[in-house]
Amino acid sequence: MPPRRTDWTLALCTGLAFATGLAGNLVGRPGGQWVFALHGMAGFALALFVIPKLRRVLPRLMHRAGWNRATAFGLLATVGVLLVVGSGAAWAVGGTLDAAGFNLLNWHIALGFTLVAAVSAHMIARAKPLRRRDLTGRRQALRWLAVAGIGVAVWPAGEQIAAGGHRFTGSRPLGRGADGSPDTNWPPTSWIADAPRPLNPATWRLSVTGQVNTPLTLRYDAVAAMAATGDATQTSTVAAILDCTGGFYTAQEWRGVRVGDLLDGAEVRPGAGWVRFVSVTGYRWSLPLAEARDALLATHTLVHGEAVPLSHGHGGPARLVAPGRRGFQWVKWVVAVDVLTAPDPAQALAIHTSSFTPAGRGEPTEASFFRSN
Ligand SMILES: Nc1nc2c(c(=O)[nH]1)N[C@H]1C(S)=C(S)[C@@H](COP(=O)(O)O)O[C@H]1N2
Ligand SMILES: [Mo]
Known about the structure:
Bound molecules: ligand MTE, molybdenum atom
Distance between the termini: 69 Å
């Protein structure tokens, strides 16, 4: 294989794996499964195409005289490929690791970012443009296709041998007792480190604002009463899977207010198209209006058919339950439902900064809805 073709194939695989890896964090519905399949194939192809690369550069690496500044990047990138592909494959087949508070998937992601940085640096230092003759040559092209084809063909087989129980997102089950019954004691998770003080249901208020004719400020009792009266057409109990990009999921029955019912009380204005859910920490996410209407502002989970209030760790008094969305979008400790004309452009930033605000750090604040003790 011509060196440049190998190298540009490696770059292509790395780019594809990176893009699908990032995109996978937004996939929560089975229809998006292909993103994960593509991610696995890109990783597999990366591992295969690294072989001709190593055959070419290993002899050079063995001789100190041949070393230069770029060699270090190349070496780092090669070790990186092995670690990233290895950790990804190990996670997919059920491997476990707990190192420095990171699980195997966390490490895979962290190493993936490092690899992309190393490959980028390596390419800036060394990349040579592809020429026509690197791409032509029928035998060569067929060989390239064969290797790529093996990656595509072997991936579904690999998926079959992957450990059972995990979702198509790669997440593994949590929150079931030994007998398989719901267990609400799964460990709470944060995107970064949101740790607000417990909210006091007696002083907590939910505001419904933005593009509405009648802004509302609701007390916990009013929200809970709306949840309890949800009729058959507006069911207030939803079975939904919270699937965290950190690699776990929990299937629970959630009870609360259908967001559509909340919004009807406030009368959404024409022209509104999005709804933003805002946490007491400033963490927030927005959903298209129709999807938001069908989402739930949950106050309880059901355990053996009985409603148990959401614990503080899981976002009590109220958190968003957005079926088909990934866990990071299920905003906890919701204090405002804000109707907008467009998605909140700063939400992706807000989920990274909320943990550094006084409320996110759990510092005492003037806000009235925190518990006094
Ligand atoms: N306010 C707020 N909401 C949040 C988060 C957060 O850090 N702050 N983390 C999100 C993430 S990443 C996940 S996976 C779920 C975790 O919910 P759980 O702790 O009930 O499992 O909450 C989401 N909601
Ligand atoms: Mo998460």
